[in-house]
Amino acid sequence: MRLVDRLTAMAMHATASWTVCYGDNLRFAGDDLPPPRRVLVPTRHGPVPVWVYRPSSPAWSAHVHFHGGAWLMRYPGMDDWWCRYLAATAGVVVLNADFRVGPYVTYPVAQHQCHDVAEWAARGGGDLRLDRDRVSVGGFSSGGGLAASVCLQARDAGNWLPVLQVLGVPALDLAADPETGEHGMLSVRLRELVRRVYFPDPATRTEPYASPVLASSLAGMPAAVVLTAERDVLRRDGHRYVARLREAGVAVVHEETPGVDHYFLTENPIRARTTMAMIADAVAEALGTR
Known about the structure:
By secondary structure, the chain is an alpha/beta fold. The protein contains eight helices and eight strands, in the order H-E-E-E-H-E-H-E-H-E-H-E-H-E-H-H. An eight-stranded mixed beta sheet has the order 1-2-4-3-5-6-7-8, sandwiched between helices.
């Protein structure tokens, strides 16, 4: 790893809690819930802190969430607004995973840790006493790619399977080189940095757990809700994944927010109310809380 890349990634990692600011205008529900409880979940790469959000009524179904940040920013608090909203409106326990990222680890550490956290939930989640058959997963941006990877890992292992995958503006193809002609919130420079720092071996970028849209088959995957944004450079990843899931016979709900870039909910908070409510309904239905 080049020293300049390492230093850049370290700076992004260290300053994420100050530089990643979005979602304050999306706090439509859940701010009255108590602070999340921190638990440590064992994984094959060491324990992972997980923040547990509980709804106001007793719940045993769980949604495991993976935050964004381009595999370089370790800051689960960026999605506190979303975890609170989903817990309050879907009536589920939300687990916000604090997995490790670059430059301190490289692929596949985050993918493995996210899978192991979700599998832990599917085994009951220790003293959380979760329903083993009612676990969904989801995430935004790189977290959406992690959620899809978790589903592939679970399917391939054959021990358990999430009942739903919720993928918001997901990053699903790390093998394709960023196009220099693209413009938008996610710059070519950032995407090249991600590849060099977290996916330094080009040969691994085509592996399905790194790039789920490139998996040889998506048969047997969980039902999906896929959210894309019209001006987002990751829009093609989402469209390709939707098409491949449908070709494999997997049920998919696909919604695209027109006229917005990667922060698709924040950029259109009026429409976001409808989108977020749709996701909460889908999670509640899949997990049997309604």
